[in-house]
Amino acid sequence: MLSSGRKFTRSGFGVWPRRRTIIAALAALVLLPIEASDAGWLSDVFKGSSKQAQSPKRAAPPKPAASPKRTTSAKPAASAKRHTAKAAAPKPAASKASASKPIAPACTPAKFRIVVDVGHTPESEGAISARNVSEFTYNLRLAQRIEEKLKAEGFAETKLLMTEGKARSSLVRRVATANNLSANLFLSIHHDSVPRKFLEDWEFAGKKSRFSDRFSGYSVFISSDNPEFKTSLSIAELVAKEMKGQGLKYAEQYSQPIMGKYQHPLLNKETGVYSYDKLIVLKKTRMAAVLLEAGSIINRDEELRMDSPEHRNIVSSGVALAIKEYCDRRWGILGPL
Question: Half-sphere exposure of 189 toward its Cβ, with a 13 Å CA cutoff?
């Protein structure tokens, strides 16, 4: 005990100042992690001014500011996502509505206005058949039958259109009349012939006439310049399908180079729908427009069929069924078959 006391007495004069230095150094080491960011940390320890000299303490508020970012920014972000999701919710409904939208618009037969156009005029009769009957006569008979069938199927607004005058002027009047009626469909009825170079001479009932048995069949024409081209194509496809369904064949010659200027692009090789872009009644009408060549009256065998009431019933029934099918909403959903 006494010896240790003596050591303490000696150290009181020589060892204690060193201990003070060591203690100060240890205090500096303790403070090192806090003050390591300050370049003058050691001098500040010995001067006792570390608290006053530490600017990072005031610049450190980024640390408290960072914690709100961790606590509050995550929640608002999640909330924003929820709000965005709610706002975007109507989009699936919109796409669902567009997916169920009919390809071809449905119609109500009682309100669907159809203009059945009798091709040509008494002054401009069109082609002359193998038996010297004018195309206009054939067109009128068939158009009248089609009008009757359509009205019987509920298309009460069907109107038969006959015009007078020369060919081109009558075409302009047809278009103007159909446009003024605000029709939904312009259906022009014709019977076919062939270019002059294919015609041959023969006599019928003591009169000279011309014929061509080389070609036969119906054909359906539309124009890509028509403002309602898609509807025109839909109805043309249905009419052609019904003609084919009745066992009739379409006229394939219009797709062949031998037709010269009468050659037309074939839009459907299965049913016989052609494009005839420059025809006035197809491109100038403001509604869907379809031209039906019911068959060839220059072909001697086919003319006999064209002249029979039975054949007119077949063609008119096919046309009425096609337009009725177009007006059925199921056709709008399924599209062309």
Answer: 27
In angstroms, rounded to a whole number, what is the distance separating the alpha carbons of residues 279 and 225? Answer: 9
Task: Report yes or no on 80 lying in a domain.
Answer: no
One-letter amino acid for residue 330 of the chain: R
Please tell me the total number of residues recorded for the chain in this structure: 337
Give the CATH number, domain containing residue 234. Answer: 3.40.630.40
The range of the structural domain enclosing residue 145 comes to 109-334
Unique residue bearing structure tokens 């370049």? 39
Residue-wise DSSP of 109-120: GGG--EEEEE-S
Please tell me the distance from the alpha carbon of residue 239 to that of residue 254, in angstroms, as a whole number. Answer: 18
Q: Cα 40 to the chain's mean position, in Å?
A: 75
The stretch 93-110 carries a mean pLDDT of: 51
Q: What's the domain count of the chain? A: 1
CA neighbor of 287 nearest in space, from 218, 205, 226? 226
In a domain, 163, yes or no: yes
pLDDT digit string, tens, across residues 180-233: 999 999 999 999 999 999 999 999 999 999 999 999 999 999 999 999 999 999
Residue 28 has pLDDT above 90, yes or no: no
- Asked, for residue 327, whether it belongs to a domain, the answer is yes
